[in-house]
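If you are new to this repository, start here. Below is one unmodified record pulled from the training split, so you can see the exact layout before writing a loader.
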Amino acid sequence: MMSKNNSQSGFARSPCPITSALDLVGDKWTLVILRDLALGKSRYKQFQESPENIPSNILADRLRRMEEHDLLVKTAYQQRPPRYEYRLTQKGRDLIPLLHVLAKWSLKYRLGCWDPPERFWSL
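And here is the target side for that same chain:
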């Protein structure tokens, strides 16, 4: 029997693998940031320039959460003012096939989506 307090076992809602993954990357922005990282963006301003227009406070929060969950690493490239570069970890790179599947599904069922750049498919 499963405890009602799943947070003690490390799961926010349940140990279901779908639910567990969604708890980490199922919000509106995390996979967009993951896409941008995979395509070579590494700096805060570059993420802000994406066509989805992620609000700055949400971007900061998602980058922090992604770092906490070891999906990316943050490295300082400037001290004053402090500025950082972000890179995917292996754990983050392991999510790239999920991006491919979502993109293929959208291209098939969501008319009007733009085709990702060719380099996206070779990630």
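Two things worth knowing about this chain: The first helix runs from residue 17 to 25. The beta strands are 72-78, 83-88.
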